[in-house]
Structures are given as structure tokens and as C-alpha cells.
């Protein structure tokens, strides 16, 4: 069996192992299902329900939810213009994710590459990088986005660009700390002794260890970016009509909480459920990708904390060693 075939077999085995761990955790499984549904709505929502989300029925405004009297399209009611709330929720998922996902990916790519480069080389590169990150972090992300979008025209592209720049220091500082610690490891010294170029060392030896941590940070940061986009749309400087996002739906429905509460509460629930699901799945992914902590996922829920001893190992193992 060749090396390529062996590596492919090991990757398939690792994928099946992660899938079994995911299915064993009902909370992580539920979070993954919710995020998969949101992603599916984002992909197919606009092509399938785009016209229904903008179609107005002025004679049937503010229909109450949870009724099939007017068909499945109005199962979640209608807004003040007679538009289907369910259709708008589905279409808004695509708009919200089209801002949050590119912003996170851009900041992750720029911050991780920059941070690993600065942390590995140290010296003036690290000093300049950290001072630049401190300058960006001195401005709150939401305040910076408000100022920039107020000066320039509010659009999806501008929101993505502003949020991506504002979140770069989060990944830069994490990647710099991890790379600086890995730089003194023996395997990196050995690669350097054999004349391996710095770029190759970073790509082959540093990046595979740093990226799992950055992936967990990105999953948590996704929640922050999505909430920021919703806040900007709520303030009126985010997504603009005729486009629709969850934050814009909350902003448009807040004036009618007394008569049509569902127009603001349902998109707010969509934001909350999506962010909580992403947080839960990020916590699970952090344990699943850490070989030293993966054993916690195999224990019944509630026993992981009690089963860990001072060294982070199961009490059963420590008791067995003491008895021996």
C-alpha cells in the first residue's frame, strides 16, 4: 500500500471517528442540524422563495402565526405589508450568512497568515504586528463599523470589508502566540537544521497545529459578526431594502410589537438559535480536535468534569496507578 493510500485511509477513519463523536453528543448533533438547516435555507431560499418574500398582500396584513388557513407560506404570519414572514426568514438567512461568512473567512485568512509569519520570525515583525493589532482593537468593532458605514454608503460589500478588518487582530494575536511557542519545539529546530525554508516550515509544521485553534475561534467569532451585522441593520446602516436580513426584520417589526409581535420576535429567535448553535458546535469541535481532551466526549454528560483529576486525566486511570 502506497503512502498516499495510507494517508487517505487514515483521513477517512478520522472522519468516521469524528462523526461518531458528534452523534454521541445530542447537543452538538442538534446544533449541527440547526446550522445545516440555516445553511440550506441560505443556499436555496432566495431562488425558491424570493418572489414570495417580497410579494405584498395589503388586504391581509399582520396575519397571526401558527395557522394553515392561508397556506404553508403564512404559517408564521405576515407583516404590516402582507408579506410572508416565513419566506422572509428563509431569504434573510442567505443575506445574513452572505455577510457573516465572508467577513469571518477574510479575517481568518489574513489574521492567521499574518500572525504565523510574525510569531515565527519574532523581532521587529512581531512588534509592528502587535502594535498594529492594538491600534485596531482600540476601536470597538461596532463603533468602527458605524462610523465607516455612516461616511460611506451602507452595503453588503462595505459591511463585509469593515467587519473583516476589525476582526483581523483576533486571529493575528492567537496565531502569533501559538507560532511563537511552536518556534522553539524540537521538530521545528530539526527542520531548520536540515535547511528547510521558513515558508515550508510554517506551512508543514506550524499551520497544521495552529489551524484547529483558529477554527474554534472563527466559529465563536462567527456569532459576534452575525450579531454585529444584525445590530447595524437594526440601526439602519446595514442591509438596506429591498434586501432583507434578520436584523432588518427586527428593526422593521419593533414598531409593531403591540399588534404584530411575531414580525420582530421570530427573526430575533432565529438570530439567538443560530448563534447558540454555533457556540455549542464550536465548543464540541475544540474538544474533538484536541487529542488530550477528546476522551471527555466519550463520557456521559455531567461526568466529564467530575472524572477529571488534577492532571486532566480520568480519575479511574489515576486511581489505577496509585493502587499499582
Average pLDDT number: 81
Care to count the β-strands? 0
Largest sheet: none
Q: Tell me the β content.
A: under 5%
CATH superfamily: MetI-like
* CATH class bucket: Mainly Alpha
**Computed CA radius of gyration, to the nearest angstrom:** 24 Å
Distance between the amino and carboxyl termini: 41 Å
Question: What can you tell me about this protein's structure?
Answer:
It is a single chain. By secondary structure, the chain is mostly helical. The chain has a single domain, classed as Orthogonal Bundle (MetI-like fold). The protein has helices at residues 3-24, 26-54, 85-121, 123-137, 141-151, 156-182, 186-193, 198-235, 246-253, 262-288, 304-307, 315-323. Helix 3 packs parallel to helix 6. The longest helix is centred in the C-terminal third of the chain and has 38 residues, at 198-235. The protein is elongated. The model is unreliable at 3-8 and 304-324 (pLDDT under 50).
Mind sketching the topology for me?
Blueprint: H1 3-24, H2 26-54, H3 85-121, H4 123-137, H5 141-151, H6 156-182, H7 186-193, H8 198-235, H9 246-253, H10 262-288, H11 304-307, H12 315-323
Helix pairs in contact: 2-3, 2-10, 3-4, 3-6, 3-8, 4-6, 5-6, 6-8, 7-8, 8-9, 8-10, 9-10
Keywords, please?
MetI-like fold; mainly alpha; 12 helices; 0% strand; disordered C terminus; 324 residues
Concise structural overview:
By secondary structure, this protein is mainly alpha-helical. 73% of the residues lie in helices and 0% in strands.
